[in-house]
Amino acid sequence: MLLTDQEVKEVLDILDKTYPDARPELDHTNAFEMLLATILSAQCTDVRVNIITKDLFKLVKNPQDVLDLGFDRLSDLIRTCGFFNTKAKNILKTCRILVDQFDSQVPDNIEDLMTLPGVGRKTANVVVSTCFGQPAIAVDTHVFRVTNRIGLVDEDNVEDTEIRLMERIDRDFWTKAHHIFIFHGRRTCKARNPQCQQCTIRSYCKYYKEVIEK
């Protein structure tokens, strides 16, 4: 059974108070750095990405800098990241498009961002919400797991989950909701061993009621 609209508001309020410091955990200082970091984050932890970009961002300040590095140097710099060869190719292709079509600027809309190699809807949502202040809910593995597990939504894929979450959550809270779901998923509602006894919303949670309490 899904949470009621009132329960959704109560859950969001509790999580907001539980994680008042919820924010993007990928280190960045501008939209270009966030774009590269988010591309790198696929199948890789934010901790690992931040280690990689600490050195990478000292060398590259714009798309042309990346192109000047070339494939071999770039792939070597991101080697400890999963699928580094594919990501290096995508980053180089993306930077070429940014230089040729967008005056070396990161687009501020989802449609243009999704034309870039290595950029899916999740990455585009992260960039527009974090860097351009546009309301968006980026559904990564944590958001998908948490929102379906607690009963906020009941969907089989990330696309439908995003649509349903946008329907159930006030637009002005989309971006904050994205961050608090990720914090909750990483710190409490873990994939293999959810910490239900310390969870601040367990009294609302479908999984807790149907699996743990029984």
The secondary-structure class comes to mainly alpha
* Contiguous uncertain segments of 5+ residues: none
Average pLDDT, all residues: 96
Report the major sheet: none
- State the order of secondary-structure elements, H for helix, E for strand: HHHHHHHHHHH
Structural account:
- With 214 residues, this protein is mostly helical.
- It has eleven helices and no strands.
- The protein has helices at 5-18, 31-40, 46-59, 63-77, 84-101, 110-113, 121-132, 141-150, 158-168, 174-187, 206-212.
- The model has no long low-confidence stretch (mean pLDDT 96).
Chain-wise SSE layout:
Layout: H1 5-18, H2 31-40, H3 46-59, H4 63-77, H5 84-101, H6 110-113, H7 121-132, H8 141-150, H9 158-168, H10 174-187, H11 206-212
Helix pairs in contact: 2-7, 3-4, 4-5, 8-9, 8-10
Please supply descriptive tags for the structure shown above.
elongated; mainly alpha
Quick structural gist:
The protein has 214 residues and is mainly alpha-helical.
